[in-house]
Design goal:
The chain is of the alpha/beta class. It contains eleven helices and seven strands. Helices cover 39% and strands 23% of the residues.
């Protein structure tokens, strides 16, 4: 998950607000009590879990994210990443992973690791971004095309390690890891973000769009910025850009 290194502030202002759209659904799939949030990012899910009365703990691979989350939550936040968590087997009552399993280099091993740390009867709830994404791609795609952006090379998992990014594919990944899938479905919502916050994420190297941007020459970056603001000024409504968003939620039990 190296793509997330050193982008905590930019992430919190931009794509964290997109990922927050599934937090309530993830928490609804989990019982009361303790919660381990895997890939906790800026701590949004943990903070909301604590507000609902849960005792939340978190792990993240990025030291900047760990430090950022510690400023927002009461529970402990430590360094750690899938598929190898420094946790005893059968020690976690419930776990969450919001938009995490679609980024790990070893999805199958990561799902098996989640099963390993859960107690018998323990619950997991997580999300992935399905193939095709949402309305956000229809915004940035033309911006990059008009700017003659050179796509990043590589990054895709080998077919033997990947899984279908769909409702059935996510359920299948968890089932193959030995978990009993209780629910698997799509979630849809509208992502509302200020243009300046979205630009902060892109310019800060957040996620694939940001990583693509920072890999360009200064000349191409200047064109992207110009095209971004030209399109943002056209599409903004009441100070915000709005995009249709979609995710796959799965709830499973050991």
């Amino acid at each position: 998950m190296d793509r997330w290194k050193n982008v905590a502030d930019a992430y919190a202002r931009s794509f964290a607000t997109l990922c927050a759209g599934t937090v309530d659904a993830v928490l609804e799939g989990l019982p009361a009590g303790e919660l381990m949030d895997i890939g906790c990012g800026d701590g949004t899910l943990m903070a909301r879990a604590e507000a609902s009365g849960k005792h939340a703990y978190g792990v993240d691979s990025d030291p900047d994210m760990v430090a950022f989350a510690r400023e927002r939550v009461r529970g402990a936040v430590c360094a750690g990443e899938l598929p190898s968590l420094d946790l005893p087997s059968a020690s976690i009552e419930s776990a969450s992973a919001n938009f995490v399993l679609n980024h790990v280099p070893e999805p199958s091993a990561s799902a098996e690791e989640i099963r390993r740390i859960l107690v018998p009867g323990g619950r997991f709830a997580g999300t992935i971004r399905p193939s095709g994404g949402g309305g956000w791609a229809a915004f940035i795609g033309p911006v990059f095309k008009a700017s003659e952006v050179v796509p990043l090379q590589g990054g895709a998992l080998p077919p033997e390690k990947d899984f279908p990014r769909s409702v059935d594919g996510f359920a299948g990944l968890l089932t193959a890891a030995g978990l009993d899938v209780l629910e698997s479905r799509e979630i849809r919502w509208t992502w509302s973000v200020r243009p300046e916050d979205l630009w902060t994420g892109i310019a800060g190297g957040v996620a694939t769009p940001g990583q693509t941007f920072v890999a360009q020459t200064p000349e191409v970056q200047a064109r992207v910025e110009q095209q971004f603001w030209r399109r943002a000024e056209r599409d903004v409504q009441d100070g915000n850009l709005r995009f249709s968003a979609v995710a796959v939620l799965a709830v499973a039990q050991r």
